[in-house]
């Protein structure tokens, strides 16, 4: 089983030829409301990839809260640990222009009210193969939950920020992208960044977008996993799909090489579709892609 303690946002996405300048109004082409947030994305990715998943976080008592709850439920995620709190849900207002570039305003809303996992949450987390954390909740809540968890902690350090030592001391596996790895370690070279990460945590994966990913452990294992060559239409949540699938495969006892290939295959499927939760592949799709 996989536990995820993290954010749930509603992505409000406006598609337009070009983003408006300050004070300007432009005509948009299309609009979509897509459940997102790194926590909910990783929970959805892991559930679609075939695991039992429990999600812990908060949504608001606005119109978006029930939509996000149902979205997670329909992916098969156990949402008994998802609280409804007074006020707005977490929102990401996104403008995507025809170049595929985007500008985003994130409003934490209910995510900002999360203080830490409850005793009941920690009991469920303690029965899990992994606890997935990201940095979209208040850092004090993330640190407290990581320290209290009796399960291996997998940290996606995004959005990147300074990492408290007490958090890193509780992390079993860290999975930054190359930009986050550089910001954390000060090393531009991904191999050097990986080595620097392993001075702080036992295992690390640095994801490199269409270049694949690097894995290392303090025990000396090193792996390079190529990305699956595909035509990407939207890379939103590629990283979350990768982490979710990686943890599912590891929980099933697969070798690191196999688990990384499973994760790269799931992420490659997700970049061929638009959106966050809408793009994540099912277990059947991942297995089919692995055999071709
Ligand atoms: P995002 O922020 O978009 O969710 P990220 O920056 O956290 O993603 P990336 O390093 O971009 O993470 O991608 C994660 C993994 O997804 C990569 O290691 C790779 O396996 C896969 N991936 C990403 N982009 C592509 C692509 N264009 N083609 C194939 N696979 C890709």
Number of discrete helical segments: 10
Oligomer: single chain
Outline the biggest β-sheet: 9 strands, mixed
Portion in beta strands: 25-35%
**Cα distance, first to last residue?**
28 Å
The CATH superfamily title: Ribokinase
Helix and strand string, N-terminal first? EEEHEHEEEHEHEHEHHEEEHHH
**Strands side by side in the biggest sheet:** 5-4-1-8-9-10-11-12-13
What's the overall average pLDDT, rounded? 96
Structural class: alpha/beta
The Rg value, from CA coordinates, equals 18 Å
**Helical percent range?**
25-40%
Runs in which pLDDT lies below 50 for 5 or more consecutive residues are none
How many beta-strand runs? Answer: 13
Number of domains: 1
Which descriptor suits the 3D outline? Answer: globular
Q: What's the CATH class, please? A: Alpha Beta
Name every ligand kind in the structure: adenosine-5'-triphosphate
Architecture (CATH level 2) name: 3-Layer(aba) Sandwich
- The CATH topology annotation reads as UDP-N-acetylmuramoyl-L-alanine:D-glutamate ligase
């Amino acid at each position: 089983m996989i536990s995820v303690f993290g954010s749930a946002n509603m992505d409000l996405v406006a598609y337009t030829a070009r983003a408006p300048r300050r004070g300007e109004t432009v005509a948009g082409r299309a609009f979509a409301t897509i459940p997102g947030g790194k926590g909910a994305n990783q929970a959805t990715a892991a559930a679609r990839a075939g695991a039992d998943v429990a999600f812990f976080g908060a949504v608001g008592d606005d119109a978006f809260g029930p939509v996000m709850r149902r979205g997670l439920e329909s992916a098969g995620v156990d949402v008994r640990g998802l609280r409804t709190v007074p006020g707005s849900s977490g929102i990401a207002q996104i403008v995507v222009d025809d170049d595929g570039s985007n500008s985003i305003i994130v409003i934490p809303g209910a995510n900002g009210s999360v203080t830490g996992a409850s005793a009941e949450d920690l009991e469920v987390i303690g029965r899990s193969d992994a606890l997935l954390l990201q940095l979209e909740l208040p850092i004090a809540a993330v640190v407290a939950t990581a320290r209290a968890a009796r399960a291996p902690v997998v940290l996606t350090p995004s959005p990147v920020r300074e990492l408290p030592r007490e958090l890193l001391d509780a992390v079993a596996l860290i999975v930054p992208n190359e930009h986050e790895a550089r910001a954390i370690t000060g090393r531009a070279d991904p191999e050097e960044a990986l080595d620097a990460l392993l001075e702080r945590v036992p295992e690390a994966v640095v994801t490199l977008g269409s270049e694949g990913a690097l894995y290392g452990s303090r025990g000396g294992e090193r792996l390079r996993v190529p990305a699956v060559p595909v035509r990407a239409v939207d890379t939103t949540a590629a990283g979350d799909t990768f982490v979710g699938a990686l943890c599912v495969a590891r929980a099933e006892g697969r070798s690191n090489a196999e688990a990384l290939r499973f994760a790269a295959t799931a992420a490659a499927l997700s970049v061929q579709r638009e959106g966050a939760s809408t793009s994540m592949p099912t277990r059947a799709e991942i297995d089919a892609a692995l055999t071709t």
